[in-house]
Specification:
Layout (H helix, E strand, L loop, with lengths): L57 E5 L2 E16 L6 E17 L2 E9 L2 H4 L5 E11 L2 E7 L5 E11 L5 E9 L25 H4 L8 E7 L3 E8 L18 E8 L5 E10 L11 E14 L3 E14 L6 E11 L4 E13 L17 E18 L2 E13 L5 H4 L5 E11 L3 H16 L1
Antiparallel strand pairs: 1-2, 2-3, 2-19, 3-4, 4-7, 5-6, 7-8, 8-9, 9-10, 10-11, 11-12, 12-13, 13-14, 14-15, 15-16, 16-17, 17-18, 18-19
Length: about 450
């Protein structure tokens, strides 16, 4: 298994072969990769997270391949209040497998990330007040989160050291994530137990499922500069296929990890014709993000994310802004709390408020917000998985102009859920380290 560097000489920018280790769940022993960058610093696509925090996953070996498996499923009852709200029993899920192998002096990683959201929550997704984006049966989805496509990611990532301190990477994805924005919300340690997608998703990280992505980058231990060309069109209503279109959009991102606790990024992208039913409409997107985190006692961690994202539309003046602050604290192996606060400037068009005698002007924008707080209690653990019971409450905020439509200026939503995901605990790390220490002493 890659990662624990053994004494001796190695090629510049690479590590010596490492002794196979037991699965360590949420690994505090970061597996060393090219030019000293921890192999699991990549969270989604080619985006980085801080080294001091981890996503829970299983590491194991099959022949000459290092494998990593992680994912989550939320069986939930969702109840969103007010005239625009709804309730639903459903399941949202995703699973990811990554296989890594040495190749031509570098490292090749093959990835697949799949989701059965289309089955679990239906074609129109699940209720979520103030959420917008994509369509179903030809109609704009509003106050609902759309289901993800079955093929969320099918990709290959290759990196190689040019010198002991500089590496290059190439990411090719029939379905994947361009270098635009922070890691997708389900891959951020600050949100990995939060089943709700941010209402600013389409201002920040919505391009994480793009059907056609090519990204090239150059990086050091602390810096990465990368650029992408990709298909900017949103996925269509058929969630089971690949929606290929020309690679007519582009983006660039700079990321800086000054130490193990921080990851800062800035990105810009031009997205051509994201809406299938409005092909003449393109947009510019700018995103700044700050991630921070660290370990908490023997088996916990904390993580936070601050970000600003803005869209500039080809048919509208100025920028439409969004801001997000979120955090998650794994207090110990049994208890996790998480929270999120958001502000978004949502156009009337996105909220389906235009048209008709009482409709708002298409160019009008509304300042909306959402504040949520959740908790998960782990019930049982086994076979590398953990089952938790959780609850999430959300206080939404709308301006007075929308009070009648939402029934209140502060409509409320709530969710209870069972969550299954890979087991992440530093307790398994410590056991693995003690086992290796004993082997070394014999």
């Amino acid at each position: 298994m890659r990662g624990m560097v053994m004494p001796g000489k190695a090629k510049p920018g690479t590590e010596m072969p490492a002794m196979a280790m037991p699965d360590t769940g949420m690994s505090g022993m970061k597996m060393t990769g090219t030019v000293g960058v921890p192999a699991d610093r990549n969270a989604s696509g080619t985006a980085w997270i801080p080294d001091a925090v981890s996503e829970p996953m299983h590491h194991f070996v099959a022949g000459n391949w290092d494998l990593m498996l992680h994912g989550a499923a939320f069986a939930q009852y969702d109840n969103q209040g007010g005239p625009r709200g709804d309730s639903q029993l459903g399941v949202i899920d995703w699973a990811m497998l990554m296989a890594t192998h040495d190749l031509a002096g570098g490292r090749l990683q093959l990835r697949s990330m799949l989701s059965l959201d289309r089955v679990g929550v239906g074609g129109s997704g699940y209720p979520q007040l103030l959420q917008t984006g994509e369509r179903f049966n030809g109609l704009l989805l509003h106050d609902r989160q759309h289901p993800h496509d079955f093929f969320m990611e099918v990709a290959a990532l290759y990196d190689r050291a040019l010198t002991p301190d500089v590496g290059v990477e190439l990411y090719l994805a029939p379905s994947g994530e361009p270098a635009l924005g922070p890691p997708a919300n389900m891959h951020r340690p600050s949100a990995m137990d939060n089943p709700m997608v941010p209402i600013g998703h389409h201002w920040q990280d919505a391009s994480h499922v793009s059907f056609g992505v090519v990204t090239a980058g150059i990086f050091t231990r602390n810096w990465k500069v990368e650029g992408s060309i990709f298909n900017g069109r949103d996925p269509d209503e058929n969630r089971w296929d690949f929606d290929f279109n020309p690679l007519d959009s582009y983006s660039g991102r700079v990321t800086f990890n000054p130490d193990s606790a921080w990851s800062l990024s800035a990105s810009y992208g031009f997205i051509k014709s994201p809406e299938t039913l409005d092909p003449g409409h393109s947009m510019h997107r700018m995103v700044l993000s700050i991630q921070n985190g660290g370990r908490l006692r023997s088996d916990g961690q904390w993580a936070t994310t601050l970000l600003w994202g803005a869209n500039g539309h080809s048919d509208q003046p100025g920028l439409s802004n969004s801001a997000l602050a979120e955090g998650e604290v794994m207090l110990d192996a049994k208890n996790t709390v998480f929270a999120r606060a958001e502000f978004v400037q949502k156009p009337a068009d996105d909220l389906a408020l235009t048209g008709g005698p009482s409709g708002f002007a298409p160019g009008r924008s509304f300042d909306v917000g959402a504040f949520s707080l959740g908790y998960v209690r782990e019930l049982t653990q086994g076979r590398g998985m953990t089952l938790g019971l959780g609850a999430l409450g959300t206080l939404n905020c709308v301006p007075s102009a929308l009070e009648a439509l939402y029934g209140s200026r502060t409509p409320v939503g709530a969710m209870v859920f069972f969550r299954v995901r890979a087991l992440g605990s530093r307790a398994t790390e410590m056991a693995a380290m003690k086992g290796m220490k004993g082997m070394n002493e014999r």
